[in-house]
């Protein structure tokens, strides 16, 4: 933390942060500005969270605002529901997305539905944070990428930042949102790079993607940890004379259709990259969006470079499961030379 | 364990006080409140079954036999308290102030039936089993954090004790010592599965030991035992002493729902020896000079006309608004949903 303070003095408006530090910074701000903010999770107190997302927060704000809960995901989400309907603004940390399943019932039958079931009398504005994804040699089940379990679920929004700036901005936007928001944080990107992040409060609008690389021949659509794969693939493709545009989707529900449509209409080709399993993956929804809106602009069938329809493998073989720049380049060449 | 958790009673099956310690706390107002509400919800319950049989109501979950448990506990609540019921606890929620017409609407497939009056914190009934226990812990936690005197009650049945959320709710509530009362109605059947097959414990109350909280086993058909023990648990909660687990031993007289036939799984004469909770209160009233034939008749007339008025209100309620299907999913409808809605409305317009 001392290092962060140092860079603040150098530049008052931004500081150099990793993605996980940006999350920490965002939560600190949310705790500071609103007494109703309460963070619940396992090992988030003295330990500061297994990834240190809450480092130092309990020390500053007390153990009744940064609460070490029993080891109980359904309990964390279930009590967060009670807190949220009764005026608090919980941030519930699920240690790994692969451990969210005991809480799935609470999210599916209550978090996402209480507004509808009570005709908006009761609402649960809350944020659920969960690290997700493979590629960090984590033990099995720690590496799941099951975002579509939640994008399929009406009543909750799902966001997935790929970089420090978006992470803080989306987290704050999620807290300001009147509806529950699941924030999926790519573990692989937690410490992969530092970038300038504004010191103060700002939001990244939920439901808006971002063009992170402009191009003319093919649109690559990705999010989270797959953005850096797309960027590497775009570099390789550029060496072959192919110009790639990259969309960082940022919000997985509600999806920014306009950004996809406009880009695909321009490039006339699309490659979707995600690390989740192929069948039922979000790529299929994106294919549908393009089909509905830009079908006659396409010069080639849409390619999907995804994980396979298998459980995420043990880490000795996870690199084969995850989309690689080389696989993406093959996809790019296929659509360009169709 | 049954010896450690004897069933507490204040009146016996013949309506005589067995625990005279409460004699002074029982007055005419309390007796009449209990009688009025128990009769009222019984009238509601029987009417609902009739309406279902006539095709005027959807599948319905009756609670006959559990009136003392539901009314006794609901009368122990204060206005600012939070209620987390199941789908069989509308006797309790009606007693606490939910409209009967809305409750009929609920069983007629109308979402409006989930909506409680603004000044009553009544959650929509939990349909999944035991999920409401952590909610109650959370809502109570919020009250504790604000330093109010409000508390929460979670209603649940015997089957719910087998679910993980039962444990998670009690565990959180006891760890954070929040003001919540876990009110179990052990009506001895979870649809068709009897309590002996539900658990290997002799009582539900003993499970409180695992959480380091008080557990009490009461005769759930004794409205006084229910009222005073629930009140005590609430007093304890409001005083900052954390949760209590109450096991109210009662009896589901009828079917699980109107779609269920208990003769398939219940021995023919089972439950016949159980004295009906309302009949028991009547005996008490006769034994102790609270019986006033004129008041009883007036109360019967009053509850019948209230229920009839609720049926009328339900049947005259404005038709369901299709837009409500879309309107309450998000605070602001996502573009995708707007499009789906408009496309469907256009389709209807073309027909």
UniProtKB/TrEMBL annotation, chain A:
CDD domains, alphabetized: TPP_PYR_E1-PDHc-beta_like
Highest taxon of source: Bacteria
Keywords: Oxidoreductase, Thiamine pyrophosphate
Cofactor(s) listed in the protein's UniProt record: thiamine diphosphate
Domain Transketolase-like pyrimidine-binding: 17-192
Entry's Gene Ontology molecular function annotations: oxidoreductase activity
Alphabetical list of InterPro entries matching this protein: THDP-binding, Transketo_C/PFOR_II, Transketolase-like_Pyr-bd, Transketolase_C
Name under which the protein is recorded: Alpha-ketoacid dehydrogenase subunit beta
Protein's organism: Psychrobacillus vulpis
Lineage of the species this protein comes from: Bacteria, Bacillati, Bacillota, Bacilli, Bacillales
UniProtKB/TrEMBL annotation, chain B:
Domain of life of the native organism: Bacteria
PANTHER family to which the protein is assigned, alphabetical: 2-OXOISOVALERATE DEHYDROGENASE SUBUNIT ALPHA, MITOCHONDRIAL (PTHR43380:SF1)
The protein, known as: Pyruvate dehydrogenase E1 component subunit alpha
Keyword Oxidoreductase: yes
Domain (Dehydrogenase E1 component) ranges: 38-322
InterPro entries to which the protein is assigned, alphabetical: Alpha-ketoacid_DH_E1_comp (IPR050771), DH_E1 (IPR001017), PdhA/BkdA (IPR017596), THDP-binding (IPR029061)
Catalytic activity as recorded in UniProt: N(6)-[(R)-lipoyl]-L-lysyl-[protein] + pyruvate + H(+) = N(6)-[(R)-S(8)-acetyldihydrolipoyl]-L-lysyl-[protein] + CO2
MF annotations from Gene Ontology: pyruvate dehydrogenase (acetyl-transferring) activity
One Pfam family from the record: E1_dh
Function as written in the Swiss-Prot or TrEMBL entry: The pyruvate dehydrogenase complex catalyzes the overall conversion of pyruvate to acetyl-CoA and CO(2). It contains multiple copies of three enzymatic components: pyruvate dehydrogenase (E1), dihydrolipoamide acetyltransferase (E2) and lipoamide dehydrogenase (E3).
Enzyme kind, highest EC tier: oxidoreductase
Keywords in alphabetical order: Oxidoreductase, Pyruvate, Thiamine pyrophosphate
């Amino acid at each position: 933390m001392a290092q962060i303070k140092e860079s603040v003095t150098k530049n008052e408006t931004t500081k150099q942060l990793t993605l996980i530090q940006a999350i920490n910074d965002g939560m600190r701000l949310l705790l500071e500005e609103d007494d109703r903010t309460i963070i619940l999770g396992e090992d988030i107190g003295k330990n500061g969270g297994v990834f240190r997302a809450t480092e130092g927060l309990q020390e500053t704000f007390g153990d009744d605002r940064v609460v070490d809960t029993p080891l109980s995901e359904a309990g964390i989400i279930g009590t967060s529901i009670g807190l949220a309907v009764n005026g608090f603004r919980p941030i519930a940390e699920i240690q790994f997305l692969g451990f969210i399943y005991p809480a799935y019932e609470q999210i599916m039958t209550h978090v996402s539905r209480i507004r509808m079931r009570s005709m908006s009398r009761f609402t649960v504005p809350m944020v659920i944070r969960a690290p997700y994804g493979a590629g960090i040699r984590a033990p099995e089940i720690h590496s799941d990428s099951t975002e579509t379990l939640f994008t399929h679920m009406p009543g909750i929004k799902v966001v997935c930042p790929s970089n420090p700036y978006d992470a803080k901005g989306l987290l704050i936007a999620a807290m300001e949102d009147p509806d529950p928001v699941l924030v999926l944080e790519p573990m692989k990107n937690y410490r992969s790079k530092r970038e300038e992040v504004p010191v103060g409060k700002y939001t990244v609008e939920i439901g808006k993607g971002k063009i992170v690389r402009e191009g003319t021949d093919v649109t690559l659509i990705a999010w989270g940890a797959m953005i850096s794969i797309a960027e590497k693939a775009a570099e390789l493709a550029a060496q072959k004379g192919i110009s790639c545009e990259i969309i960082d989707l940022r919000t997985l529900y509600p999806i920014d259709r306009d950004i996809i449509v406009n880009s695909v209409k321009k490039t006339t080709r699309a490659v979707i990259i995600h690390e989740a399993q192929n069948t039922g993956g979000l790529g299929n929804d994106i294919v549908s969006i393009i089909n509905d809106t830009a079908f006659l602009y396409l010069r080639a069938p849409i390619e999907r470079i995804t994980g396979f329809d298998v459980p995420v493998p043990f880490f000795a073989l996870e690199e084969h499961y995850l989309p690689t720049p080389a696989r993406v380049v093959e996809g790019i060449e296929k659509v360009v030379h169709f | 364990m049954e010896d450690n958790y004897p069933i507490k009673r204040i009146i016996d099956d013949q309506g005589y006080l067995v625990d005279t310690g409460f004699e002074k706390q029982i007055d005419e107002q309390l007796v009449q409140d209990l009688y009025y509400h128990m009769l009222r919800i019984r009238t509601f319950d029987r009417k609902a079954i009739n309406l279902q049989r006539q095709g005027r109501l959807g599948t319905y979950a009756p609670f006959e036999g559990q009136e003392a448990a539901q009314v006794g506990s609901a009368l122990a609540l204060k206005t600012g308290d939070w209620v987390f019921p199941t789908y069989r606890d509308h006797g309790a929620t009606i007693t606490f102030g939910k409209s009967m017409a809305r409750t009929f609407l609920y069983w007629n497939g109308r979402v409006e039936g989930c909506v409680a009056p603004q000044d009553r914190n009544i959650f929509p009934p939990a349909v999944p089993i035991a999920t409401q226990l952590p909610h109650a812990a959370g809502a109570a936690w919020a009250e504790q954090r604000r330093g109010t005197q409000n508390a929460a009650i979670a209603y649940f049945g015997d089957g719910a004790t087998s679910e993980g959320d039962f444990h998670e709710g009690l565990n959180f509530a006891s760890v954070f010592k929040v003001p919540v009362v876990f009110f179990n109605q052990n009506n001895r059947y979870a649809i068709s599965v009897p309590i002996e097959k539900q658990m290997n414990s002799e009582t539900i109350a003993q499970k409180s030991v695992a959480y380091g909280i008080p557990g009490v086993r009461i005769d759930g058909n004794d409205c006084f035992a229910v009222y005073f023990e629930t009140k005590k648990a609430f007093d304890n909660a409001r005083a900052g002493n954390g949760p209590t687990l109450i096991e109210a031993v009662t009896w589901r007289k009828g079917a699980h729902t109107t779609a269920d036939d208990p003769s398939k799984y219940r021995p023919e004469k089972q439950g016949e020896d159980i004295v009906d909770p309302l009949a028991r209160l009547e005996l008490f009233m006769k034994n102790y000079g609270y019986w006033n034939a004129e008041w009883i008749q007036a109360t019967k007339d009053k509850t019948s006309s209230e229920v009839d008025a609720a049926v009328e209100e339900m049947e005259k309620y404005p038709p369901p608004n299709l837009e409500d299907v879309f309107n309450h999913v998000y605070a602001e409808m996502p573009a995708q949903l707007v499009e789906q809605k408009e496309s469907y409305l256009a389709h209807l317009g073309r027909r």
